[in-house]
């Protein structure tokens, strides 16, 4: 079952179960996907999104909510931070499993070896390779410094 079908099935299940918090998050996901489809239709595009596009949307939504939760916690608004955390949980159900630190290090080494990267000027190619192979499976903000450290050695 593709990602879009899983999202639609989960939305129907949440409606039947009268789970308003989960339903609200799933509807936010649906709205974000619709917005991206409309944006893709402008110009020459046909507006269809593949699973990689959907994973990118979901990853962005998780990152936004993590930042919001942190801001709420710093501001002493723990109930809002908890709501953001629960939304993150729902969104992450549809993302691929995140790689462990050891798996991430192995993926970086494999990408460097596959490209024959030798120096820091190859960092962009290595990051692009990792994005192609592991979209949604790793935090590229944290991976960048790891790649840089490996290329400098």
UniProtKB/TrEMBL annotation:
Pfam family, one: YqeY
Gene3D superfamilies, A to Z: 1.10.10.410, Uncharacterised protein YqeY/AIM41 PF09424, N-terminal domain
GO molecular function: carbon-nitrogen ligase activity, with glutamine as amido-N-donor
Spans traversing the lipid bilayer: none
Highest taxon of the lineage: Bacteria
Full protein name: Yqey-like protein
């Amino acid at each position: 079952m593709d990602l879009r079908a899983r999202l639609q099935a989960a939305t129907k299940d949440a409606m039947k179960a009268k789970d308003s918090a989960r339903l609200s998050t799933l509807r936010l996901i649906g709205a974000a996907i619709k917005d991206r489809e409309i944006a893709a239709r402008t110009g020459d595009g046909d507006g269809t999104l593949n699973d990689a596009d959907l994973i990118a949307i979901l990853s962005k939504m998780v990152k936004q909510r993590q930042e919001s939760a942190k801001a709420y916690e710093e501001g002493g608004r723990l109930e809002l931070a908890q709501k953001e955390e629960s939304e993150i949980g729902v969104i992450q159900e549809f993302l691929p499993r995140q790689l462990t630190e050891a798996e991430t290090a192995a993926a970086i080494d494999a990408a460097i070896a596959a490209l024959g990267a030798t120096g820091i000027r190859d960092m962009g190619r290595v990051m692009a390779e990792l994005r192609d192979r592991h979209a949604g499976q790793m935090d590229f903000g944290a991976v960048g410094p790891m790649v840089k450290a490996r290329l400098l050695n």
